[in-house]
Amino acid sequence: MEALGALGALGAGAALLLGLYALLYYYLGVATRCRNAVSLRGKTVLITGGNAGIGKATAVNLARRGARVVLACRDKARGESAVYDIRRESGNSEVILMILDLGSLNSVRAFAQSFLESEPRLDILINNAGVLKDGQTSDGFDQAFQVNHLAHFLLTHLLLDRLKRCAPSRIVILSSSAHMYGKIDFRTFNKPTKCLIKGGQSYANSKLANMLHARELAKRLEGTNVTCYAVHPGIVKTEIARSYPWWSLWLVWFVRLFIRNSEAGAQTSIYCATEEGIERLSGRYFVDCRAKVPSPQACDDQLAKKLWEFSERLLGLTS
Ligand SMILES: NC(=O)c1ccc[n+]([C@@H]2O[C@H](COP(=O)([O-])OP(=O)(O)OC[C@H]3O[C@@H](n4cnc5c(N)ncnc54)[C@H](OP(=O)(O)O)[C@@H]3O)[C@@H](O)[C@H]2O)c1
Q1: Cα–Cα separations (whole angstroms), residue 132 to 82, 135, 209
Q2: Which of 8, 76, 156, 298 would you call most buried, defined as having the most Cβ atoms within 10 angstroms of its Cβ?
Q3: What residues are labeled active site?
Q4: Where does the signal peptide begin and end (predicted)?
Q5: What is the pTM for the complete model shown?
């Protein structure tokens, strides 16, 4: 009798745990969706790093809405395979690949030139590509600093006139809640890091830079009908931590039970790219399809302006 009672209690405990897990999974992965059905027929969307993870899921959704989607990817084979998948999943054949390596500023300039020559429109720019790794780019900058912030800053600058000409238009910048741990020290911020732990700090710094970029950009774009938004996609099952050895990810393996897939992780990017009536929230931070207050550093207007001028100087954009 006692054994039966114990078994029953065990069963009830297991059912409760399963129920809690299902609730948590639903809350983290499914509950927050972009629910609008806005059509993007006639619009052109450019997504950096659209061949994998959140970028690819975003591309499928925007292609389903009828947009012409340009994937800006660094690897031809991976890019072509993604174009094939996205066309098949969306039923839209207007998905094309253009090569862009954000680890090379020359590649960014060459990409922008051929994009402007071949594509008459740009309605939505999604600065999505990102790395979480240490090391140096071919331009001598820290990987995360350049790929996540500086190269996207340059790309946005080079495409801004086209976005203005196609207004109302939007820029979506993938940041992260990791921006809360970011610090911007202008003496060291752009210098390459040499170990993965420091690479983690660089990642957080670059994500703070994404937040500040969106903030200052929104200010400078006032009155143009071009708006911009910074996004945290949630914690999403992607390849972002691919540089880390498997054994260092043991904690993430446990967390993987609860994290979102790329389709769920793409919802806030899709929302910021398509939702009508959010223009007055330009420059703000969005999480789970809602505007959220970011860390105090990310609201520092002086720091945002200083970072803008610092980035311009590094890129030789000042006259
Ligand atoms: N996953 C998360 O939990 C999470 C959380 C917060 C924020 N985010 C942000 O979400 C964005 C998308 O990340 P993800 O999670 O989808 O990661 P992912 O699966 O690793 O995808 C990253 C994309 O960026 C591209 N990329 C990397 N370096 C590049 C370069 N030098 N030039 C051009 N493209 C490059 C990758 O291309 P290859 O395939 O060629 O490498 C890939 O397409 C990132 O900005 C990330 O910081 C992610």
Answers
A1: 21, 10, 14
A2: 298
A3: 203
A4: none
A5: 0.92
